[in-house]
Amino acid sequence: MDTIDVSNLNRQFLFRMKDVGQPKATVAAERINARVPGVKVTPHFGRIEDQPADWYRSFSLIVLGLDSLEARRYMNSVVCGFLEYDDEGQPDLGSVKPMVDGGTEGFKGHARVILPGHTPCFECTLWLFPPQTKFPLCTLAETPRSPAHCIEYAHLILWGQVRPGEEFDTDNEEHMKWVYDKAAERAKQYGIPGVTFQLTQGVVKNIIPAIASTNAIISAQCVLEALKTLTCFSTGLDNYMMYVGSTGLYTHTAKYEKDPACPVCSAGVPLEVDPDATLQQFIDQLLADPALGKLLAAPSVSYGSTNLYGRGVFEAETRPNLARRLTELLGGGAAAEGAVLTVNDKKLRGPLRVRLRLGSGMSG
Predict the structure, then answer these.
(1) pLDDT tens digit string along 133-178?
(2) What does it catalyze (predicted)?
(3) Quick one: which of 78, 18, 31, 33 has its CA closest to 349?
(4) Choosing from 80, 124, 138, 150, which is the catalytic residue?
(5) Architecture of domain 137-204
(6) Considering the chain, what is the average pLDDT of its residues?
(7) Are strands 352-358 and 269-273 parallel, antiparallel or unpaired?
(8) Under DSSP, is residue 339 helix (H, G, I), strand (E, B) or coil?
(9) Chain centre distance of CA 99
(10) CATH class for the domain made up of 269-358
(11) At 283, phi and psi to the nearest 5?
């Protein structure tokens, strides 16, 4: 849903001044179609969440150039939702949708190849993404030491005091100008140089200026990996490349490992349950689980093609199963051990697979 801004013009060759305000996707597609014979680019101006899963399923490969972890996690859950596993927990190769991701942050960047079910997905390696910088409110209010402190003071503290009840809009230029003016006043009061309107936008929106050379290197790596994946003309990246250009030119590749208990891409998240637990108690245990509970709101549960408990139109039909023992529903204890249940929920963008282990998980 991005549109062209004047600040975009200095680091690419697709947009012109006359294009400012137009959708990036539409203008980029027009330029590429006119420039490269035989290539047809179809633009879509909208949210990635607005496209149905089957639309993403129709592509041979997906390349990401997204600007947030949330958007990456969404696409990760979509492609991992296509995965199908056999009885031995091995992914069906026909259900694997390759994905290439690239991202830059100033002079740093990364490229990675995700083969769902084979390589680690985003959820497996969330620890790679450091938390966003947050400043203690006491520092902002009492001892500001940097331009960012002054800007965040105006944004997080002063705005609510001076304009109570009015929601701050990062895309409203008047709002941003107000924060800049107040931050500049505070910076002058404490003798702190460096508060600019551009920096104010960057701090408030958590924007790090894009560097043309970094973008070129990372995008080239993504194109190369996409070609490798589609044509098999060379060995592909296994499976992560990092680039740092702030103190010279440094690249590093790493082979990260899949998380066997990943709730998004694994063949089944292991969960120990009491052999005497009812289906309702199993659902309650899911909701109480520290890792799984935050992914769920109102889960439905199925086993293979059998709907054990479903919401909506299936609720009345399957409600009696809630009081029955889970092992009984699965055909007995021997059948239940290692059984993979499929959990669906309105909060999930793909199915959650849970692999049962009979024990004392419900005791106490």
Answers:
(1) 666 777 788 888 899 999 999 999 999 999 998 999 888 889 999 9
(2) ATP + [NEDD8 protein] + [E1 NEDD8-activating enzyme]-L-cysteine = AMP + diphosphate + [E1 NEDD8-activating enzyme]-S-[NEDD8 protein]-yl-L-cysteine
(3) 78
(4) 138
(5) Orthogonal Bundle (1.10)
(6) 89
(7) parallel
(8) coil
(9) 13
(10) alpha beta
(11) -65, -40
